[in-house]
Structures are given as C-alpha cells and as structure tokens.
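To illustrate the input format used throughout this study, we show a single complete record. The first block contains the structure-token representation of the backbone; no residue identities are included at this stage. The design step must infer an amino acid for every position from geometry alone.
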C-alpha cells in the first residue's frame, strides 16, 4: 500500500497560516457580522500584513467561501462519525439533527452567506467553491439517506423514500436557519430545537405498538 507523501515545510506553514486567518475571520464575523468586517481587520486579527492576507485569499468573498467550505467539511466529518458509531437509526437521526442545529447556532454569522449562495445556484460564486459545495451537499444526502434506509428496513421509520426523508430533514434545519436570521438572536435555535426533534420523533420514527388488547365498553 502506497503511503501519502510527507507534507513539505511550505505546505505545513500554508495550512497553519490559513487556519489562523480563518479563525480570526470567523471570530470577527461572529461578533460583528459578516458585512461589517473588513479585510484589514482580518489581517490585523490574524497578525499578518494585508498584502500577505491577499496571498491566501483574493478578497472577502473568497474568505467567506473558504469558511463555509471548512464548516461543511467539519459537519460531514461529525455526521460520518455518528453514522459509523453504534446505536439505532432513530437515535442517530436525532443526533444528526441536534448536530446540525448546534452548528447552525455556532456558525450563525455564516448561514446568510450560505443561504444566499444556494438561492443563487452558484451564480457569482467561484466555480471550484460551488462544485465543492455541491459535492458536500450530496455526501450529506448519501449518508443520511443510508440512515433512513436502514431504519425503514428495520421497521423503525415510516415507510417512505429515504432520500425524501433526508431532504425533509435538511429543509427543516434550513428553515430553522431562516427563522434564526429573521429573529436575529442566538436563542432562536434553542427555541426551535425541541420542536424539530419532536416533529422527527412523532412524525418519522415509528412508536412501539402496545401489545395489550383495547378494552371494549
């Protein structure tokens, strides 16, 4: 089996610097909002010259897209860990929903830009970024569809197209994101979380049937 080549010193430094810049940008955007933050402020917060910042990112939009991509990759890694762990499909689906809502709350500053890119269908976005976003979306659909399919086969979910159930779950989470945008506060997701989990458990997850006989009058 061929091993991956060892990263060069330049590659290590580039990755480290990229992480530092993205962390600084995320912190500023979370505290002040995406629109208010400037590239000059990001450079200062990351401890690099403005010219150095532009060596890593062509502009603010490129920086935002990199942040969205990084968050998406983290979400997929966490969902994959849930899928591969022990537990029943209903338990895992609720874990996935909770995970998505948690990210929605923590990355609330980026959701409007993510939603905007989805609505535009990639128009105005860098081709590589848009393709990567589509690939991440499809990977999410594959993994969650697999969970729903396993639960349906085990009689733990209602009989339905598992891909449809995945799209419905994703749609509900995005709806919470839009609600958070309109409410303009962090508490919006906390308010919506028990509602969404209740909808899942009562509408998608099959409840055990009672073995007792119904009494007649």
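Output of the design step:
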């Amino acid at each position: 089996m061929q091993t991956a080549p060892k990263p060069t010193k330049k590659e290590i430094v580039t990755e480290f610097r990229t992480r530092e810049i993205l962390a600084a940008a995320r912190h500023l955007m979370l505290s002040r909002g995406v629109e208010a933050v400037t590239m000059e402020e990001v450079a200062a917060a990351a401890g690099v010259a403005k010219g150095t910042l532009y060596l890593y990112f062509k502009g603010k939009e490129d920086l935002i897209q990199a942040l969205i991509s990084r968050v998406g990759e983290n979400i997929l890694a966490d969902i994959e860990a849930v899928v591969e762990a022990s537990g029943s499909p209903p338990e895992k689906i609720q874990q996935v929903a909770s995970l998505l809502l948690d990210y929605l709350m923590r990355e609330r500053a980026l959701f409007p830009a993510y939603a905007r890119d989805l609505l535009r269908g990639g128009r105005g976005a860098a081709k590589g970024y848009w393709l990567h976003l589509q690939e991440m979306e499809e990977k999410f659909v594959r993994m969650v569809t697999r969970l729903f399919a396993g639960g349906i086969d085990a009689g733990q979910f209602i009989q339905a197209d598992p891909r449809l159930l995945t799209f419905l779950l994703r749609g509900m989470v995005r709806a919470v994101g839009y609600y958070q945008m309109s409410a303009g506060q962090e508490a919006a997701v906390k308010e919506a979380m028990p509602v969404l989990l209740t909808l899942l458990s009562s509408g998608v997850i099959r409840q055990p049937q009672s073995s007792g006989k119904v009494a007649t009058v």
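Structural context for interpreting the output: The radius of gyration is 21 Å. DSSP finds nine helices and no strands in the chain.
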